[in-house]
Write a structure and sequence with these properties.
Chain A: This is ABC transporter permease. Chain A: It comes from Pseudaminobacter soli. The complex is a heterodimer of chains A (287) and B (293). By secondary structure, chain A is mostly helical. Chain A is built from 12 helices and no strands. In chain A, α7 crosses α9. Chain A is globular, with a radius of gyration of 26 Å. Helix content of chain B is 77%, strand content 0%. The two termini of chain B are 25 Å apart. Chain B has a single domain, classed as MetI-like fold. With 293 residues, chain B is mainly α. The chains are: A mainly alpha (287), B mainly alpha (293). Chains A and B meet through α2, α4, α5, α6 and α7 of A and α1, α3, α4, α5 and α6 of B.
Chain lengths: 287, 293
């Protein structure tokens, strides 16, 4: 870990070449380096332990004692029908949430930017309010409303409840990009005789594409890992997060760790991919 | 509004208005109003609905105030969430400062990359990791026994487990906003203050912290709210004696069978959220747009 030498430290050592002063300047940096190492250990050790426990033959996931190394828990996971159903359901829900939240959030962003400042402030607060609402309350409110309309908990309500706050994320991300949009492009297209729909399809939508892709990705992630809201509207359905939490209660085996390890692996790959895409697009001049 | 139709035409404009209305009315406003309605009605048998007893009442809210066990759990939830907030703030501030101002750009980029990974990992999985770590026969007890720090395995599940799991799950929601806001501070200001003889604590107190207040406010709001509204950590890492307010709400719905009371409790949690957001915005003098970023 490289730490930039502070100007103060350089000045002091150059002037006096006094080793005690040097040590005094070095001490905070040593303490700080130790602090950083401790922090990163804290952040990663639990995940490493969880991952490592996948390879232990012990029936309860742990690394102490190490009873023997095995890959059996991966095949146990592979043949777990309930896990596959939960995974499939989570994917289905996430895709349905994107199908609702992406158009609704984009519409909200366009609506918001075409309002007078005063109305905009009020509506903005209304639109971000789902992000400042406890996930538990979002689930309960959705459940209670649809219960009155004769619809019980299940996939449909999970999608609605999740989309109600994920739309806010989409709105924020689209607004951020819309603010840098130059309306002159639209005026030029209109001057050249393009219809308003054509302008939207050929100018605005392509301009928003990067933020729409990023928003779809965030929406997927938010939906896939949601637990609090889902718990209240799930009825008897079991998406992946509920499946994992239930396993802890009803019989945790390292097969769940294998699942965790795979999900972590996918997350790391996705994080790297997104970072590469982000850097590439950052290097390109913005249109 | 006229603006919208002039820009997008009637068809597309109507679609935009329709989508926004569908979202805000049917998915945000109506559910919350129904929850409010539910919380103000008594829990009745189907036959009694519409009868003499079916009128608005504050009994469900009075029940929370009058039940000593629930009242204590509610207050403990607030107190413990504040503790999670303060702990994460104290732990992450030096790291955020280091990443934003002290580290070389390469080291900072590497640190951000390393931090993003746990940030994206599912909360349930992160909690599961602590469940394994803190288990009675688990690695933490084994390590402490081996080091001779304890001579009996410790039961970590309970208040300690819940707090440890929450700090772990939400710490990056504190770190990233603070890091982002310190990054925008011009380093020249810090150097000028140092050249003029300001001590390190004074530089932080008078320059860095005031500059980073929007980030600190955001981090505080989010960690407090995530902790107060958490369900996974108390459910997995708790013990019967460490119940969380969200667990009480859950029980009203799925074990107590009193949805009206559950809705009232959820509304109390929602009100607490709003108060915390408003108080933080006022205290740090920032507006909602800064926090919602």
């Amino acid at each position: 870990m490289t730490v930039r030498i502070e100007t103060e430290g350089v000045a002091r050592s150059a002037a006096g070449r006094d080793w005690t002063a040097k040590a005094a300047a070095l001490l905070p940096r040593i303490i700080f380096a130790g602090y950083m190492i401790l922090f990163f250990t804290y952040l990663f050790l639990p995940l490493v332990v969880m991952g490592a426990a996948t390879f232990n033959t012990s029936k309860f996931p742990t690394v102490t004692p190490w009873l023997g190394t095995t890959l059996d828990w991966f095949s146990a996971l592979w043949s777990d029908q309930a896990m596959w159903r939960a995974l499939g359901l989570s994917f289905l829900i996430a895709l349905a949430v994107i199908a609702i939240a992406l158009p609704a959030g984009t519409a909200a962003a366009l609506f918001l930017t075409s309002l007078q400042p005063r109305a905009r402030t009020f509506l903005y607060a209304f639109m971000v309010s789902p992000l400042l609402t406890p996930g538990v309350a979002i689930g309960i409110a959705t459940l209670v409303l649809w219960h009155q309309l004769g619809v019980g908990g299940g996939t449909f309500l999970i999608v609605l409840a999740q989309a109600s706050f994920i739309t806010s994320y989409v709105m924020l991300m689209v607004v951020a990009r819309l603010q840098r949009f130059d309306r002159v492009q639209e005026e030029a297209a209109a001057g050249l005789g393009a219809s308003r729909f054509m302008i939207f399809r050929r100018i605005l939508l392509p301009y928003l594409r990067p933020s729409l892709l990023a928003a779809a990705f965030i929406a997927f992630l938010q939906s896939f890992e949601n637990y609090n809201t889902t718990l209240f509207v799930r009825g008897t359905e079991t998406p992946l997060t509920v499946y994992i939490a239930t396993k802890v209660r009803t019989g945790l085996t390292p097969a769940v760790n294998a699942l965790g390890l795979i999900l972590i692996g996918v997350t790391i790959l996705a994080a790297i991919a997104i970072e590469i895409v982000r850097r590439r697009s950052a290097g390109r001049p913005v249109a | 509004m006229g603006n919208l139709f002039a820009r997008f035409g009637t068809g597309l404009g109507a679609l935009i208005v329709g989508l926004v209305a569908a979202w805000l009315v049917s998915m945000v406003l109506a559910p919350n109003l129904m929850m409010l309605d539910f919380s103000l009605r008594p829990n009745l048998m189907p036959a009694q609905i519409g009868g003499l007893d079916d009128h608005y009442t504050l009994a469900n809210f009075a029940a929370l105030a009058g039940d000593p066990v629930h009242r204590v759990i509610f207050l403990k939830t607030i107190w413990a969430s504040a503790l999670v907030m303060v702990t994460t703030l104290a732990v992450t501030y030096p790291i955020a400062y280091w990443m934003a101002k002290v580290a070389s750009p390469r080291a900072a980029a590497l640190a951000v990359m390393a931090l993003i990974i746990p940030f994206w990992i599912n909360e349930v999985l992160r909690t599961l990791a602590w469940y394994i770590l803190l288990a009675f026969g688990g690695p933490l007890n084994a390590a402490l026994l081996w080091l001779g720090i304890i001579d009996q395995p410790v039961r970590w599940f309970g208040d300690f487990g819940v707090l440890a799991g929450m700090v772990y799950a939400y710490i990056l929601f504190m770190l990233f906003p603070i890091y982002n806001s310190i990054s925008t501070l011009d380093t020249v200001q810090i150097e000028a203050a140092r050249n003029l003889g300001a001590s390190t604590p004074r530089i932080h107190w008078r320059i860095v912290i005031p500059h980073a207040k929007a980030g600190i406010a955001t981090g505080c709001v989010f960690t407090f709210m995530l902790a107060a509204g958490s369900y996974v950590a108390p459910a997995l890492l708790g013990a019967p004696g460490s119940r969380w307010f969200t667990e009480i709400i859950y029980n009203w719905f799925f074990e107590g069978g009193n949805w009206n009371r559950g809705a009232a409790y959820a509304l109390v949690l929602l009100t607490l959220y709003m108060l915390v957001v408003l108080a933080t915005l006022k205290l740090f003098r920032v507006n909602l747009a800064d926090v919602a970023k």
